[in-house]
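Suppose you are handed only two things: the residues of a chain and a line of SMILES describing magnesium ion. What would the bound structure be? This form records exactly that question and the answer produced for it, so the two can be stored side by side and reused later without any lookup.

QUESTION INPUTS
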Amino acid sequence: MDEATRSRHDAAVAGDPDLADAIRRLAETPRLLVALDFDGTVSPLVDNPADSRVIPEARSALDLLEHTPDTWVAFVSGRPLDGLIRVTEADESALLIASHGVEVRLTGGAVDVGLSDGERSRLAALAVELDRIVAATPGSKIEHKPVGLGLHTRGVPTNAAAAANEQARAAAHAIGGGFLERAGKDILEFAVRDATKGDGIERLREHVGATGVLYAGDDVTDEDGFAVLTSDDVGVKVGPGETRAGFRVADPDVVAGLLQSLASLRARN
Ligand SMILES: [Mg+2]
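ANSWER OUTPUT
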């Protein structure tokens, strides 16, 4: 390691020598998959989700990793695939797991989710109810996803958000058919198909034949991702909250430093 690389590495993992060791070991794995949540992990959380972008220091590290032999970069997000392509500015070769694992784009194209008539009509019925709730809850928003609906409450006062979520749960229950419910940061989602970020990571691992995986994420849904990691992998929780990840960092800036460090180490191997 030259001095610049060493100082970046030290800064990224300051106070956590175990994480520094884990990244050094991971850099030597024969086939490396770098899988990352997007929002709050490589991009700061912003009020308008369409404005999110990968922070520049992380972008340059990911570009370097993508051009390193036997190394793959993937985004694993709750966002729908078309939106994820837009915010990540991903080129055609990028590996993308979207809608929490329901939508998958590997080398060779996207998977079509193709809803049944029953799934479609349950979603339409729930959309009517959520529209009603959103109209009565200033600041809340509905998001239409490929296999579900999201109720966004970022910026809505806590009590009003809780009441809106309760009404949404009751509406989903009344429609029936067993909506899958998923709570994230200021969003409550209802889906008609089941898949998790863990399913997505397993799919990616198999696709590239990875012998080691880095997965970083900040939200409760990322715990499904950490759950499928092995002792050859490295899981990094971003920010506060309970986690089963082996390591924790403060924010996306530290993730960027970590990625720069991993990219430099990997490029040298
Ligand atoms: Mg996130």
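WHAT STANDS OUT: Residues 37, 39-41, 217-219 surround magnesium ion (CB under 6 Å). The chain has two domains: 3-112+195-268, 117-191.
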